[in-house]
Write a structure and sequence with these properties.
The structure holds three protein chains of three kinds.
Chain A (H helix, E strand, L loop, with lengths): L16 H10 L18 H13 L7 H12 L4 H11 L3 H10 L11 E6 L2 H5 L2 H12 L3 H6 L2 E2 L5 E6 L11 E3 L2 E3 L4 H12 L25 H8 L6 H7 L2
Helix pairs in contact in A: 2-3, 2-4, 3-4, 4-5, 7-9
Chain B lengths: L19 H6 L4 H8 L3 H11 L11 H6 L9 E6 L8 H8 L1 H15 L3 E6 L4 H16 L15 E6 L9 H8 L23 E5 H13 L1 H5 L9 E8 L5 E6 L4 H8 L9 E5 L8 E2 L9 H6 L8 E6 L4 H15 L5 H18 L5 H14 L7 H15 L1 H10 L20 H4 L1
Parallel strand pairs in B: 1-2, 1-4, 2-3, 5-9
Antiparallel strand pairs in B: 5-6, 7-8, 7-9
Helix pairs in contact in B: 2-6, 2-9, 3-6, 5-6, 5-7, 6-9, 13-14, 13-16, 14-15, 14-16, 15-16
Chain C lengths: L6 E6 L2 E6 L4 H6 L25 E4 L6 E2 L10 E3 L3 H16 L15 H9 L17 E2 L4 E3 L9 H9 L6 E3 L6 E3 L13 H5 L5 E3 L12 E6 L8 E7 L2 E7 L12 H5 L1 H4 L9 E4 L2 E4 L2 H15 L3 E5 L5 H14 L5 E2 L8 H8 L15 E5 L3 H4 L1 H14 L2 E6 L11 E4 L5 H11 L10 H13 L5 E5 L5 H10 L2 E4 L6 H6 L19 H10 L4 E5 L3 H4 L3 H10 L2 E6 L11 E4 L8 E4 L4 E5 L12 H11 L9 H11 L8 H4 L4 E2 L33 E6 L6 H5 L11 E4 L1 H7 L6 E6 L2 E9 L7 E5 L13 E6 L5
Parallel strand pairs in C: 1-5, 16-17, 16-23, 18-19, 18-21, 19-20, 21-22, 23-24, 24-25, 29-33, 30-32
Antiparallel strand pairs in C: 1-2, 3-4, 3-5, 6-7, 7-10, 8-9, 11-12, 12-13, 14-15, 14-25, 26-27, 27-28, 29-34, 30-33, 31-32, 31-34
The chains are: A alpha+beta, B alpha/beta, C alpha/beta.
The complex binds flavin mononucleotide, iron/sulfur cluster (SF4) and FE2/S2 (inorganic) cluster.
Chain lengths: 249, 441, 803
């Protein structure tokens, strides 16, 4: 989101004086966005239920704003202005409040994006192990602009893939890696990248053998547990005397 | 040769460990039973304090002491488990939560009981969706088993536990930004004081601890402070799950006793650099830590030794850069991350990270002069200690250390000019095969 | 604001400074003449946020530099603000702020009065090391029809956003994106339209937020400041006029903690355009052959005197709420002494008997605005402060948010404050008195029974929030005895929200038909409604309108058209040709609050000075002077030669204003209740009012709708006459509960006719969840018949074509 990127805002700079005047005079008090009332929006039942369930989980309603935005994003694919207004009406906050929250967080998308979300880590550990080549391969396979992928992400023309270079995803052990539809895969090669895009387009489960989940811990099982740890285990807890001793009285 | 000491990772690959039955069959939740029924909260606090357990989230502050800062008395208090783990190079909490969620839950409930908190939250980064699913399932199991909720194990205590998913913002790992994010706001850090222990979530006293910190709690309660202190060093007792990554042969999480020589960790456990290469620089505590060089490989891996060397143990994540790596590029990568993650609330961090990135970009594209290096250094100095939270410092310290320790490389980059700008990695990284799966195991 | 902590001593740059404990270091340092630069610090916005880092200082014993804006002082604290370390920090923060700032001062409206400019000069390095590209935004763009935003100049201090979040609580203005990409904006780029939004112009420390109307009008060195009081509503905010070439260029807040807390509403901020309007009446006029024609003052005064003399005691005066105490005093004196007529009023609705006036104005009963800050609970009864006294809306929000003050609301129509209230109750329109009685009962007043049904339960909920001995009742409506009983039972103080800006003052100086100056006993005159009838039916012959437009403002406006047409003689003092001057025979140009000199009395009893900042337009003369001459022509020599003497006369006839002078009132005003003369308040024993009040009006039967009305903030002449505000001028709407809309088969936005007994009003439907089913609300003051439908049960049907 750095350099050179100009956020989409009312483009009055290119307007003639007349056009600008028209824009300003077209602003009506009704155009402002205070807290919408429920009857002003059409919230799908399922979305409403999810948001209300989240609201019930916390001591204060506003804590539900992240879950609510997640629900909106799950429902519409991204945080659409309508979706945000609906969530705002359910929560009793302004849509502006929720948009402000949504734009703060990298995982919320406030523009339309492709169906499958591929986040490719380009942070230190992945970069040190070749993420640039993997990212290039992803971009090429998806046919999207690498610069955009670097900044706000880009979607393939067929709308199947949304690709974004992402900061450290917390899986440097499988660097270079990517999160594909919220699941972690690695270590990836440029070939894997091409395969993934093909598989996503074909509606297949991507590279199952590179999935992180279920993998063993590095170094394998500890050959001989430390005797002190073992002592901790064999002196099981509970009201027993030994445990008292272990606690030091 | 180097070996791990597995306390938190004990049974880590036991099939089904994430389920409550398996966890219980391995002795799980006994510490909780004991803590709720046999020990007074004050005694729990004393035990935790005596154990010398230091926070594993970055600052290394005594866990028991922090818990004892919460005011006593009847009021709504909160506990937040910091599972944001967004520091580049850190991935230990992911493994702890994905594989042994109940160990964490048990630790949380005990800590909540000790601190008198009726509400607990796990703030997990949104990217860890799979892990969050595991946690949510485990929380549900624990509710059903009566370890969470009203009147836990007939002790009359109530603790509610909610898994709260973030949505992609490193700054939410900073404890007060985490609170804002939990309150449903933009994750901006708050001014301190007031400290969260006095005025935190929803304005109430709040204890915030890292996943690993809390995962230690059941072990301490189970076996006592002295037992715990028999691991590690005097000032850094216990074990530490260390995430090792970068240009090493066997990246991964290794649980070791604090104080182990760093070389053993990097070479012995993680396999050291690839054939024919040498360590050039390494971050001992995630990307926020000033880099160390090959000369410092023999330092013991402990809070105190790293601090003495002018760096820090931080979250305990080692990132290794070998002789193929261009340090100016490494600096730029680092700076870009912090620039991207700066929340924008305070000036020095927002503008300092932004400006530093621009200057480093010029260095790399050969559009800088050696004087710019002085400006870069001075800007880092101007960031350090002047920000609202330490995110700004977290860029300024490593970037500053790189310019200081590898100034010749920066100067060479500038001199080489645009045409001969160095490649980020000397050797095409694809030449080095990504670690095969077997090696990761 | 220091909370009166203990006095302590600290050392700032080697100088001992006295301060109160807990005060922020920036403020304390000022007492040692040390200025610490700040950007984000603005105590009006609440707790400091410590974001900009401009105020870093060194404190002995603390290794890191600390933000002076958020560090409370302690005894013995040793502070350095001039060391190399501090200077380096200040230099670097300035440098950082300029990394992305365009430095386009020559073409920036803020130039010359820009904190960023000043601080860069005073605390910056003086040279720039930044050669990198700056961030770009499209600019400037309209943030609202009134404000332009230039995001490149923004230094992200959050003041504007904090105002929207934590002061006005409209939450429309937000920070979007993150880090150095953050920018100030609104949802989906909608305009920011909210009644207080103009305050962000003044809060912005750079030229990022500028007033569209003021852009490129003046540089600070071309202008002069003039302080006065805004009399567009009872808030009476203290304002500063920026004047260039004898014209008002803008209006700024002139912080008065006791009155406005340093805020203004947009009406007050942008309404000055009406004063500069070409439509102003600038010369005296006399009707000739059906047209008002400009004449000389002598001729006009003589014509006026002649008209009034003819009517004699059959003349009546209506004094509008923006009139000063002096204007009101002289008017009632003309009526009572020169013409022998008791018919003078400042209220367009009902009339209250003298005893009740006295009772409700008692010095010990009245709350000051700042008393709201320390009350434990507040009851808002029968009013929506946002519309009728906007600054009080902000004040209540503040105390609820920051002090946890408990708020209860009892109104017929939903209010803007509902969100912060612990309990809200909606009564049937027209049952203000009945609900007040029900509340009095629940509060434990003697002689009241529990109200039946919903009313009783609602009153119980509301009363449950109120803390006896520490409650303030903010109310508006027809005064009634239950109100007194309620206040007594709760040991509460009251703050009335009157209909006009200076209604309280006008009442106290005698513009009431039931009491003379100082609530003295007097022959009783007619109320406005009776005056209207009498003019129509011939019981009265002449009307004297002083800054009043009853055709627009009275509930029964059309009846006034008839009354003024039938009257033999109508004299009007008015700023504009309006619905009432249409029927006037003689018209004098009126002065605005930017032109006149005099005093007004705030609803909490604070006397404030209105002072001239610009000359009168055209041949307009000071109204007090005109009234003095008119009085003389009518045979009543006042001996008054100046405003000062007019005030002296007021002070001598209103015992509890006794001895008050302009000097004593000064720039910030003085509450008469706080002066010794308050002891001269009419001393009669409190009357007993107990006895249950009026019965609740039953809810409309068989699905009818009971109409209530409210005066929208923007349903005012100033909206129509200020080009900048015109887009806010409301059109008639009817607010309905969702249930009723559904039942009637109409949707939001539909045009409908609202009918009762042959009267019909066309309105657009607005559906609101918090409207009580069975109620419907119209807007008053739009010049239609809405006011006449109040309290009626109406039929609502889709708009017919023939209307
Ligand atoms: C920018 C920033 C990011 C942080 N990220 C994390 C994090 O991801 N996880 C974590 O546990 N602590 C993180 N911390 C440290 C926390 O602020 C806090 O010190 C820690 O959660 C306390 O827990 P502990 O005492 O158990 O370590 C971060 C701090 C900063 C300044
Ligand atoms: S627009 Fe002005 S007030 Fe708002 S954040 Fe920017 S500089 Fe501050
Ligand atoms: S004024 Fe103190 S941090 Fe901004």
């Amino acid at each position: 989101m750095s350099d050179g990127w100009v956020p989409e805002i009312r483009p009055t700079d290119d307007m003639s004086a007349e056009e600008r005047q028209r824009l300003v005079s077209s602003m009506r008090p009704e155009d402002a966005e205070p807290v919408p009332e429920l009857h002003e929006v059409e919230v799908p039942d399922e979305l409403k239920e999810r948001i209300e369930a989240a609201m019930a989980k916390y001591p204060e309603v506003r804590s539900a704003s992240l879950p609510a935005l997640w629900a909106v994003q799950r429902h519409y694919g991204w945080c659409t202005p309508d979706g945000i207004r609906q969530a705002a009406a359910v929560m009793g906050v302004t849509p502006g409040y929720l948009e402000s929250v949504a734009t703060f967080y990298d995982l919320f998308r406030t523009g339309p994006v492709g169906r499958h979300h591929v986040l490719v880590c380009h942070n230190l550990a992945c970069w040190l192990r070749g993420s640039e080549d993997v990212l290039d391969a992803f971009c090429e396979a998806a046919g999207v602009n690498a610069d955009e992928v670097d900044h706000i992400g880009a979607s393939s023309e067929d709308g199947e893939v949304y690709l974004k270079a992402f900061e450290c995803l917390g899986a440097c052990d499988i660097a270079p890696m990517a999160s594909i539809d919220e699941r972690y895969y690695g270590p990836l090669t440029p070939d894997d990248a091409r395969t993934v895009i093909d598989q996503l387009r074909a509606g297949a489960d991507p590279i199952p053998d590179k999935a992180l989940f279920g993998r063993e811990t590095a170094g394998g099982p500890e050959p001989e547990p430390d005797p002190r740890v073992k002592k901790g285990e064999t002196n099981p807890v509970g009201p027993g005397r030994e445990a008292e001793e272990a606690t030091g009285g | 040769m180097a070996s791990q000491t597995r306390m938190l990772f004990r049974h880590i690959d036991e099939p089904g460990l994430a389920s409550i039955e398996t966890y219980r069959s391995l002795g799980g939740y006994r510490a909780l039973e004991r803590a709720l029924n046999d020990i007074e909260p004050d005694e729990l606090l004393t035990t935790l304090e005596d154990s010398g357990l230091r926070g594993r989230g970055g600052a290394g502050f005594s866990m028991g002491k922090k818990a004892s800062f919460l005011p006593r008395g009847e009021m709504e208090k909160f506990l937040c488990c910091n599972a944001d783990e967004s520091e580049p190079g850190a991935f230990k909490d992911r493994e702890l939560m994905s594989k042994n969620p109940h160990q964490l839950i048990e630790g949380i409930i005990i800590a909540a009981a000790a601190a008198g908190a009726g509400w607990a939250f796990i703030f997990i980064r949104g990217e860890y969706a799979q892990t969050a699913d595991v946690l949510e399932r485990a929380v549900e199991e624990a509710y059903r088993a009566g370890y969470i909720g009203e009147n836990i194990l007939d002790s009359g205590r109530r603790v509610e536990l909610v898994v709260h998913r973030g949505a992609g913002a490193y700054i939410c790992g900073e404890e007060t930004a985490l609170l804002d994010a939990l309150e449903g706001k933009r994750g901006n850090p708050r001014l301190k004081p007031p400290f969260p222990a006095i005025q935190g979530l929803y304005g109430g006293p709040t204890l915030i601890n890292n996943v690993e910190t809390l995962s230690n709690v059941p072990h301490i309660v189970k076996n006592g402070a002295d037992w715990f202190k028999s691991f590690g060093t005097e000032q850094s007792p216990g074990t530490k799950v260390v995430s090792v990554s970068g240009r090493v042969q066997r990246p991964g999480n290794y649980e070791v006793e604090l104080g182990m020589p760093s070389r053993e960790l990097i070479f012995g456990l993680a396999g050291g650099p690839f054939e024919g290469h040498e360590v050039k620089a390494w971050f001992p505590g995630g990307s926020s830590a000033p880099v160390l060089t090959a000369k410092e490989l023999d330092l013991p891996y402990s809070f105190e030794a790293m601090a003495e060397a002018g760096s820090m143990l931080g979250s305990g994540s080692i990132i290794v850069a070998d002789d193929t790596v261009s340090i100016p590029h490494l600096a730029l990568r680092t700076a870009r991350f912090y620039h991207h993650e700066s929340c924008g609330k305070c000036t020095p961090c927002r503008e300092g990270t932004n400006w530093t990135v621009k200057m480093l970009e010029r260095v790399i594209s050969g559009e800088a002069t050696p004087m710019d290096l002085d400006v870069i250094s001075s800007v880092q100095d101007n960031i350090i200690g002047h920000c609202l939270c330490v995110l700004g410092d977290s860029m300024a310290m490593p970037v500053g250390s790189m310019v200081a320790k590898f100034r010749d490389e920066f100067e060479a980059a500038i001199e080489a000019g645009r045409d001969a700008a160095p490649r980020p990695l000397d050797e095409s990284p694809t030449d080095v095969k990504p670690v095969p799966l077997e090696a990761v195991r | 604001m220091s909370n009166g902590g203990d006095q302590i001593t600290l050392v700032v740059d080697g100088v001992e400074v006295q301060a109160s404990a807990g005060e922020m270091l920036v403020d304390a340092a000022k007492q040692g003449d040390v200025e610490i630069p700040v950007f984000c610090y603005e105590p009006k916005l609440g707790e400091p946020v410590g974001a900009c880092r401009m105020c870093l200082v060194e404190i002995e014993g603390i290794p890191k530099l600390q933000t002076a804006c958020s560090t409370p002082v302690r005894d013995g604290m040793v502070v350095y603000t001039q060391t190399d370390r501090v200077k380096e920090a200040q230099n670097s923060v300035v440098e950082f702020l300029l990394v992305n700032h365009p430095l386009d001062c020559p073409v920036c409206d803020k130039g010359g009065e820009c904190p960023l400019q000043d601080i860069s000069m005073g605390w910056g390095r003086g040279k720039s090391r930044v050669i990198d590209a700056k961030r770009h935004f499209q600019k400037p763009i309209p943030l609202s029809p009134l404000i332009k935003i230039d995001r490149e100049r923004c230094i992200l201090c959050y003041r504007c956003v904090r105002f929207s979040q934590e002061v006005a609580e409209d939450e429309q203005l937000q920070l979007l994106e993150r880090g150095s990409s953050s920018f100030v904006g609104t949802f989906d780029d909608r305009p920011y339209i909210a009644p207080f939004h103009g305050n962000i112009i003044e809060l912005c420390p750079v030229g990022a937020l500028t007033s569209d109307a003021y852009r490129f009008r003046a540089r600070p060195w071309d202008i002069e400041d003039a302080g006065t009081v805004c009399t567009l509503c009872p808030s009476q905010c203290n304002i500063k006029l920026t004047v260039r070439d004898e014209k008002i260029q803008r209006v700024l807040a002139r912080d008065n903690f006791e009155v406005d807390d340093g805020w203004l509403c947009d009406k007050g901020r942008f309404g000055y355009q009406a004063i500069e309007s070409d439509e102003r009446i600038t010369e005296p006029m006399v009707r000739r052959g059906g047209n008002l024609e400009p004449v000389g003052w002598t001729e006009a005064l003589e014509a006026a005197a002649e008209g009034l003399r003819q009517a004699g005691e059959r003349a009546a005066a209506i004094v509008g709420g923006s009139s000063s105490n002096e204007e009101g005093y002289l008017t009632q004196r003309i009526m009572r002494r020169a013409l022998g007529s008791p018919h003078v009023t400042s209220s367009l609705t009902e009339e209250t008997d003298r005893a009740l006036h006295v009772e409700l104005s008692r010095p010990e009963r009245g709350a000051s605005v700042s008393d709201l800050d320390s009350a434990e609970s507040i009851l808002v009864l029968g009013t929506d402060p946002l519309h009728s006294m906007p600054i009080v809306d902000l004040r209540i929000r503040k105390v609820v948010r920051r002090n946890g003050t408990r708020l209860a609301i009892a109104t017929d129509r939903p209010t803007a404050l509902d969100g912060g209230a612990e309990e809200t109750a909606r009564y049937v329109p027209g049952s203000f008195a009945a609900f007040t009685a029900a509340l009095a009962g629940e509060a434990g007043a003697d002689g009241y029974e529990r109200a039946p049904g919903d009313t009783g339960a609602d009153a119980e909920r509301v009363a449950g929030v109120l803390r006896p001995g520490s409650t303030i009742i903010v109310w508006a409506g027809e005064p009634n005895g239950s109100l007194v009983d309620l206040a007594r039972a709760l040991k509460a103080k009251t703050l009335e929200v009157p209909s006009g800006a200076n209604t309280r003052g006008l009442r106290e100086i005698g513009c009431v038909p039931t009491a003379g100056p100082g609530f003295s006993e007097t022959a009783e005159g007619l109320s406005a409604a009776d005056t209207c009838n009498a003019l129509t039916e011939g019981g009265l012959d002449a009307a004297f309108l002083v800054n009043a437009d009853p055709v627009r403002d009275a509930p029964d406006g059309p009846a006034w058209t008839e009354a003024l047409t039938k009257a033999d003689f109508v004299l009007a003092i008015s700023m504009f040709e309006d619905a009432s001057t249409k029927h006037a025979d003689v018209v004098f140009p009126a002065e605005s609050y930017a032109e006149k000199e005099g005093t007004v009395t705030h609803p909490d009893g604070r006397l404030q000075r209105v002072r001239p900042g610009v000359p009168n337009p055209g041949r307009a003369r000071p109204t007090w002077e005109v009234l003095v001459e008119l009085s003389a022509l009518l045979g009543e020599e006042t001996g008054i030669d100046s405003v000062k003497e007019a005030l002296e006369a007021v002070a001598s006839e209103v015992p509890f204003y006794g001895g008050i002078t302009e000097e004593e009132i000064g720039g910030l005003g003085v509450r008469w209740q706080d002066r010794d003369a308050a002891g001269a308040f009419p001393g009669e024993a409190s009357r007993e009012f107990a006895g249950g009040g009026s019965p609740a009006s039953p809810a409309p039967a068989n699905g009818g709708l009971r109409i209530g009305a409210y005066r929208d903030l923007w349903a005012a002449e100033v909206t129509d006459r200020s080009p900048a505000l015109r887009f806010l001028a409301p059109k008639q709407t009817i607010e309905l509960a969702p249930h009723d809309a559904e039942r009637l088969g109409i949707g939001g936005g539909d045009e409908v006719d609202v009918r009762s007994n042959g009267t019909s009003v066309r309105a657009r439907v607005v559906i609101r969840e918090r409207v009580r089913p069975g109620s419907g609300f119209l807007i008053e003051g739009l010049g239609d018949l809405a006011g006449t439908l109040v309290g009626e049960d109406v039929e609502v049907s889709p708009a017919g074509d023939d209307e």
